[in-house]
Write a structure and sequence with these properties.
The protein has 292 residues and is α+β, with helices and mostly antiparallel strands. The protein folds into 2 domains: 2-115, no CATH class; 116-272, YojJ-like (1 (3-Layer(aba) Sandwich), CATH 3.40.1700.10. It has 12 helices and 7 strands. It has helices spanning 2-12, 20-41, 45-64, 68-88, 90-102, 105-109, 115-118, 123-138, 154-157, 169-176, 215-226, 255-273; strands spanning 143-147, 161-166, 186-190, 193-199, 230-234, 241-245, 248-252. Strand 3 and strand 4 form a beta hairpin. Helix 8 packs parallel to helix 10 and helix 8 (123-138) runs antiparallel to helix 12. It is extended, with a radius of gyration of 25 Å.
């Protein structure tokens, strides 16, 4: 036993000694990296980051193939690119610093109350959205409903008024009723809840959009171009129902077709729930992207 203990001690002596300070540093760095990645994932910076990853991959390929001219051009553009990144990410960086200064970090780290985020997109919610949409289409009540999926719409939500109410056909109809305080703008639906109303959406610059369609439809296409959201639109002029997804606008003929599209989003959401990684706050990640 003594020889075994000595051999084990001699083997362990080759390993680096890890102190409590080292463990603490590892935990802090891990937490900071996770928070940064989570912040990037929930902003439009995630899309920009993927573009940067493509450029870095091209740079590595150029280095392996010894393409000296391309490497020289990349080197000269690196300083300019760094400045450009700061300018591009300026809105996201500013909001991140504002949030950092306004929230309680200790409560945020150890908070397990995610009741506002835990409601998943259910069959009942689909039925309520379809019912409300059909009723509004019959009387030509204009509506703009943005359903959040993988990409966070909190930036859009901040432009409106917080609702945080369960989705129901009566609530949807009441929000978009003519001459009501909340009828102008879009609503953001997160899970089973209406997060906010009277939200402003980015307008699409796509010249292929029909001139017969108004600002409401162009806004629906615009938000679908910068996120993976699913947007349901009811025309105030014709009562026609459309769905914007992935930068495309699809006209819906009846409630069954709309329910089929929303059910496909529900199926994708349920599949992604099995792959979500939860830590501390019980945060959920949805890596799937809705495609037409």
């Amino acid at each position: 036993m003594t020889k075994i203990a000595e051999s084990l001690y001699s083997w362990l002596s080759f390993l680096p000694r890890i102190s409590f300070r080292n463990i603490l540093e590892i935990i802090i760095i891990t937490f900071l990296v996770y928070e940064i990645l989570f912040w990037i994932k929930n902003t439009r910076a995630w899309t920009l980051l993927k573009g940067i990853a493509v450029i870095l991959g091209f740079t590595v390929l150029a280095y392996l193939l010894q393409l000296d001219t391309i490497l020289w051009i990349i080197g000269k553009c690196a300083i300019i690119a760094t400045t450009a990144l700061i300018i591009i990410f300026q809105p996201e960086l500013r909001k991140a610093l504002e949030q950092l200064g306004s929230q309680n970090l200790i409560a945020g780290i150890f908070s397990f109350d995610d009741s506002k985020e835990s409601g998943g997109f259910t069959e009942k919610t689909i039925n309520e959205i379809v019912k409300g949409t059909i009723e509004m289409a019959k009387v030509k009540t204009g509506a703009l409903m943005v359903i959040e999926q993988g990409v966070s719409l909190k930036e859009i939500e901040r432009t409106g008024i917080e609702i945080n109410g369960l989705v129901s056909s009566q609530l949807l109809i009441n929000i978009f009723e003519h001459n009501t305080p909340l009828h102008d703008g879009a609503i953001v639906i997160r899970g089973n809840r209406i997060a906010a109303a009277t939200c402003y959406l980015p307008l699409s610059d796509n010249m292929a959009i029909s001139k017969d369609l108004g600002t409401r439809h162009r806004a629906a296409v615009g938000i679908s171009e910068v996120s993976d959201s699913l947007t349901v639109v009811v025309s105030e002029e014709t009562g026609r129902i459309s769905v914007a997804e992935g930068g495309w606008l699809r006209r819906i003929s009846d409630g069954d077709e709309l329910k089929k599209i929303l059910s496909a989003a529900l199926t994708k959401d349920e599949a992604d729930k099995n792959n979500r990684f939860k830590i501390w706050k019980g945060r959920r990640k949805n890596e799937g992207k809705a495609r037409k």
